[in-house]
Amino acid sequence: MDCDMFVNNPQVVHQAMCLLLGSEKDNDQCRFVQYPEVFYDGPADQEVILQEYMGKGMVGIQGPLYEEMGRFHRRKVIYGKLAENDKLVREFGVSKEFIKSACDALGGNTVDCPPSNISDSIEAAYQVANCDYKSDTNRGKRIGWLYGSKTEDVLTEIMIHKRGWRSYYCSPNPPAFLGCVPPGGPVSMTQQKRLATGLLEILFSKNNPIFAVLTGKLQFRQCLAYLWVLIWGLHSIPELCYASILHHHQLELLT
């Protein structure tokens, strides 16, 4: 959850757990639950196409798109694959508590998961959250959010669906999370630039969803949906041309 969001529905955790721990048939396939991104001070038509049409439509394929907030993951997705004992430090770093937590999650051990000492867990959390902790580890490569794009959330989602896993969409009433839209002007333009740049970085990289179809288990229709999102930054070119032609036509009518 981002710093400009807050929990609006007290049942949000319960609802996500119901989906993640649902029927035995789907239990092992669902890897994260996504809630829609809703703004309390945004326009009435905020992201209608992305959420109401693309998001819900993709539920029938492999699952909805990643949004910037409002999702619950299985820890197995974040921790990757269980490594050999001599490679655990390389994968997860030097924190013994973090290594044990990751191994318990990947091995399905839920008996000894609750920490025996809360203060030790807090200290370990500070250690793992340190900026220097990820050095010389596989964080960003196979562990956690994948690096290589300014929109690392979309890149991570593509890799999840590439493995053949699914995601679920939950849109409760009242909304699970609420946030505020960025103020107009430079702040909004900077955010749009970051999103467009990050999506194009994925489009023109080895992580392109077309390659995920050829080398992984990403479905073709899911790939088409991803491509529609990734070329979002290029929409400005035909839109600018259309606006220029329309403006020129209006000037001719006035003269």
UniProtKB/TrEMBL annotation:
The keyword Transmembrane helix applies. Keywords: Cell wall biogenesis/degradation, Glycosyltransferase, Membrane, Transferase, Transmembrane, Transmembrane helix. Pfam families: Cellulose_synt. One of its GO terms (molecular function) is cellulose synthase (UDP-forming) activity. One of its GO terms (biological process) is cell wall organization. Its main location: membrane. GO terms for cellular component: endomembrane system; membrane. InterPro entries: Cellulose_synth. It is found in: Endomembrane system. The keyword Electron transport does not apply. This is Uncharacterized protein.
